[in-house]
Amino acid sequence: MAGFIGGVFSRDKGRMRTLQNIIVTGGAGFIGSNFIRFLFRNKDFKGMIVNVDKLTYAGNPLNLVDIEEVYGNKRYFFEKMDICNHAKIKELFKKYSVDGVVHFAAESHVDRSIFGPGDFINTNILGTFNLLEAAREVWKDRNDVLFHHVSTDEVFGSLGKDGFFYETTAYDPRSPYAASKASSDHLVNAYRHTYGLPCTVSNCSNNYGPYQFPEKMMPLMILNMMDEKRLPVYGDGKNIRDWLFVEDHCSAVWLILKKGSVGETYNIGGENEWQNIELVELMCEKMAQIKGKDKDYFKKLITFVKDRPGHDRRYAINCDKIKRDLGWRQEVGFDRGIDFTMHWYINNKEWVESIKSGDYRKWIELNYGGRERTSR
Ligand code: NAD
Ligand code: TDX
User: Phi and psi at residue 100, in whole multiples of 5°?
Assistant: First the structure.
């Protein structure tokens, strides 16, 4: 079944790693789908991708119809599967001669974790544990493989007015989501340390861009503006996040896969801090410009609402290490990224409607029958 086996791997800095048969978990979600598209557009990547996704409310195979059309059953395979299913995951490793894992699958929304942490514990902690176990059992002592774990800056807690999160910052997670991600990071590092599993970890700041589920702040605000609905800003709106365009996150992860040092953690960030209220106001002005309205037209929709419990005040990432060691730079950046993103949601009416109406769930039911599938 697998197209290629093995690749070149080196622990030496500067030498390239070539992974050919990569499992991307959570590839039907926001960042995962952008990452898969990024890889297929990248001339450097000649291998095959197995997208392992349970298709929760956040997983949408419509995010990758273009990729499915061109590469489906050739270099792209979709497996509807829960990462917590040990036997099935282990089988996949063997079936596709997997030599790389990029682990995005997670419950990812802080607010949901506050209202119901159970799924976060299962998927983020037990699911990661299960993937690590499968990798350890199948890969045994191979070192020409890599398990890359995608994590968040939220594991570091909350900053005051000054300072940054470094790779060496002590963990201090404050929401059930952050605690579950912190737990998974620790497991990955423990598997590296104890069993010698070749692992890397990245901790990234807030992503935005196309295909993001509109429970997250940016797409929620854009869609609400389009419908002229209220724009709910939590608390006093002065919480700060560091925003990164999703494709710039993808390029960082790709660099880590190619030449990241085993056992290392890399911070990835936008170096782009915004108070929530200032960012929402900026988006209002941009929407007004696009729609030919008065500059303040959409700002009247801003509504301050009850704060998120335990709402972290400020995140800010120092990402000097990945810039210095791997030569990462943002290609797109904020000015182009935010304009692109706003136009994308405005222009992709079909995608937006399928999400809003829930029609994409019917499509999943029709195509995937709500069951786990191990082959097409
Ligand atoms: P998302 O919620 O859009 O997508 C998550 C995907 O995982 C979905 O396709 C879902 O179906 C799948 N999934 C969930 N549970 C699963 C399970 N048990 N088995 C298999 N698949 C399952 O999330 P996202 O925003 O794309 O985030 C991806 C990863 O990046 C997460 O690990 C998240 O913690 C991390 N991250 C996200 C951000 C951000 O700003 N969105 C920033 C830093 C890190
Ligand atoms: O309606 C809203 N109003 C509002 O003021 C929403 C949805 C959010 N907010 C605030 C809360 C945060 O301060 O905006 C900020 C961003 O919120 P989210 O988009 O929910 O992101 P955040 O909680 O910062 O977490 C995100 O970044 C880190 C992702 O969801 C995580 O998966 C990632 O790890």
Answer: -150, 145
